[in-house]
Design brief:
TIM Barrel; 26% helix; 676 residues; alpha/beta; globular; Immunoglobulin-like; 17 helices; Rossmann fold; five-stranded parallel β-sheet
């Protein structure tokens, strides 16, 4: 067996797998194409093939002791509750994403978990999707870059990364009944770039999704798996179903799928299918080969608990804290309300989620350890000056030197949730900002919410996401000025949900569904979900339609100011089509980090394109009055779009705009470049 930290290449792994397959009986092959139970593959002990264990989730190790009546050995006493993936995206920090995933990989090694069912990377199409907190925002380039770093970090620890959920799985509303109808161009430009990046980074597994795509469930679609994933994107390793997501054994076996999880629900009669000639034994060989090659390449059959990794939990907590520090987004700061002075005589803390960290639900839920509550984190700063009142009266709100109002949403796998706050919470927030202009609103959520009813009156707004087990410490540090905020929105936050490109996705006559047991299992009636916006998702949509948003993509304030100057563009070599150089200076009195964002625009394209598209970024730390030069290389692919007539990527010769700024709506410098 290989060392888990030294992956074996595909050809060598396949050769080994072929030698094993030649010794397998038909019954053994059939066992291997379905799970043994909820999280294990079948072993073949006579050939030294052990059961391989899979574990959720993207933002930490989900320590499951019981599932569907099956009890499992508790593999660890604790696992770190990292900030959610959306918050990781808000850091815009590739190196931190690698450290985040590497820490999760070490916890997998401590637990003896060879396969992690993550990262999640579905595009944020609309704010109501209950699983947005598991994903990396609305922009395909940002998501791709963070996925690339995540896969590299996780697999450097010998743990298999599972890219999920393939394809066009952008709502949890009746997810088994939703038929995603997406045009060819949007599939390539919006919904697959993150998967392509993960594949290029060496990810060893892909999980298909619950929904249908163009009339067929993704987990048994030959068009999706054999056509798009394997032939076009070039994925060679293990493809698995999401749990209980396929229904036709013939289609599953012939689709390019390798492993049905958690059991043989669709493939239970595989022997009969072979005997009747509906599928061939060679079809089973292909499935088994892929599985064996994948596990062999990463040493999964010889994966053991690594006690040395148990000693690194303190380091993991530090990574989680740094992720929260860099992922909190300062949306508004009227009259420099923040940072709040530590010498205030009365700080009123109210709202919900004050006593324990809030986390998204479902398979991504991680319990964590050593939790720091918002109340306790703020007590460390303001001590006796902190007053915690769940339902303060008018006098209490008016008389406070500052009010901190924590807004919490309940996001989870299995349902979508409203964009609007409940009437009770909305009323309470409006009341607080009306009575005290020094009110800071914290948005503890995994997705955008409606803020238009109170954003103008609020003194400051911080998007704090689901920030993990000790993220409240980061929030308190930013509130007090001990840390300068540097997070940038990986999503646009609209004023009304009706403005969203995903608005109207609910079937006619149905209201927002928010349950998850009985209806979750239903597959009928199927409702078409038409992605009529095509490539115009997120800021692309709002700019295309001329719709003002509450907070734009890439937005995030600081306690300091940054000056951009001296933009230079020049043609590069074959690897880098354009080389960009820009100077950035910290003009303020405190150290801070800025995310330099590079957008590309084609003003005269044959086919309609977005007004701008993110194609590069770099996070840079600057001391007061410090100036740094930022270099960003743009590959030729940065200027390409998918041409439906050519069925290929195409760069139109001519002039392109290169836009550099602090957000999609705050462009500081502009240059042009002409490509052949």
């Amino acid at each position: 067996m290989s060392s888990p930290l030294s992956p074996i290449d595909f050809e060598s792994s396949r050769q080994w797998a072929e030698s094993i397959v030649s010794y397998l009986t038909l019954d053994e092959k059939i066992l291997l194409i379905g799970g043994k139970d909820a999280f294990f593959t079948h072993p073949v002990e006579r050939l030294g093939l052990t059961s391989v264990f899979f574990s959720d989730a993207s933002q930490g190790v989900h320590l499951l002791e019981e599932f569907k009546g099956i009890r499992y050995e508790k593999r660890l006493e604790r696992s770190t509750q990292f900030p959610c993936m959306a918050m990781l995206a808000a850091t815009w920090n590739r190196q931190l994403a690698m450290a985040y995933a590497g820490a999760i990989g070490e916890e997998c090694r401590a637990a003896g978990i060879p396969v992690l069912l993550g990262p999640g990377m579905n595009i944020y199409r609309h704010a109501q999707c209950g699983r947005n907190f598991e994903y990396l925002g609305e922009d395909p380039y940002l998501a791709a870059e963070m996925v690339r770093s995540y896969v590299t970090g996780l697999q450097s620890k010998g743990v298999i990364a599972t890219l999920k959920h393939f394809l066009a799985n952008n709502t949890d509303y009746f997810r088994r009944r939703s038929d995603s109808l997406v045009d060819e161009r949007a599939v390539r430009e919006i919904y697959t770039p993150a998967f392509r990046a993960g594949i290029e980074a060496g990810a060893r597994a892909v999980m298909t999704s619950y929904n249908l795509f163009a009339g067929e469930w993704c987990g048994q679609s030959r068009e999706v798996i054999h056509g798009l994933l394997r032939s076009e994107l070039g994925f060679q390793w293990l493809v698995m179903t999401d749990w209980w997501s396929v229904y036709d054994g013939v289609k599953v076996i012939q689709s390019g799928q390798d492993l049905e999880m958690p059991a043989h629900d669709a493939t239970s009669d595989a022997r009969r299918l072979v005997e009747e000639g509906l599928v061939s034994e060679k079809d089973l060989d292909r499935m088994v080969l892929s599985q064996l090659a994948t596990f062999h390449s990463m040493g999964s059959y010889d994966f053991r608990k690594d006690p040395e990794c148990l000693e690194k939990f303190g380091d993991h907590g530090a990574v989680a804290l740094q992720t929260a520090r860099e992922g909190v987004v300062l949306l508004k700061n009227r009259d420099a309300l923040l940072p709040l002075s530590s010498g205030l005589s009365r700080v009123l803390l109210t709202g919900s989620g004050l006593d324990a960290p809030v986390v998204g639900g479902g398979s991504a839920k991680v319990e964590g350890w050593g939790h720091v509550s918002l109340k306790d984190a703020m007590l460390k700063v303001w001590g006796d000056a902190l007053c915690v009142v769940e339902h303060p009266d008018e006098a209490g709100l008016r008389e406070a030197d500052a009010v901190v109002f924590n807004v919490v949403t309940e996001d989870s796998e299995g349902w979508d949730r409203p964009f609007d706050l409940s009437p009770e919470v909305e009323s309470a927030v409006r009341r607080a900002v009306r009575l005290n202009p020094r009110t800071v609103v914290l948005i503890n959520s995994g997705s955008g919410i409606a803020t238009s009813g109170w954003a103008d009156e609020a003194g400051a707004i911080l998007f704090t996401w689901y920030h993990g087990q000790n993220g409240a410490t980061a929030v308190a540090e930013i509130l007090s000025g001990a840390v300068c905020p540097s997070g940038k929105l990986p999503v646009s936050i609209e004023k009304r949900f009706e403005d969203s490109p995903g608005s109207g996705y609910l079937p006619e006559g149905e209201s927002l569904y928010s349950g998850w047991q009985d209806e979750l299992e239903k597959t009928q009636p199927i409702h078409p979900l038409r992605y009529e916006e095509g490539i115009f998702v997120g800021y692309r949509w709002y700019e295309h339609k001329g719709i003002d948003v509450q907070f734009p993509f890439g937005h995030g304030l600081s306690f300091t100011e940054f000056e951009y100057s001296d933009l230079r563009l020049e043609r590069g070599n074959e690897a880098h089509e354009v080389k960009l150089r820009v100077s950035v200076r910290n003009c303020g009195a405190c150290a801070g980090a800025e995310v330099v964002q590079v957008y590309v625009a084609d003003p005269d394209s044959e086919l309609e394109r977005p007004k701008k598209e993110l194609k590069g970024f770099q996070k840079v730390m600057l001391l007061p009055n410090e100036r740094k030069t930022v270099d960003i290389a743009l590959e030729r692919s940065a200027f390409a779009y998918w041409h439906p007539g050519r069925h290929d990527w195409y760069v139109e010769p001519g002039l392109f705009l290169v836009l550099v700024g602090s957000s999609s709506a705050d462009i500081r410098l502009e240059g042009t470049i002409t490509l052949d």
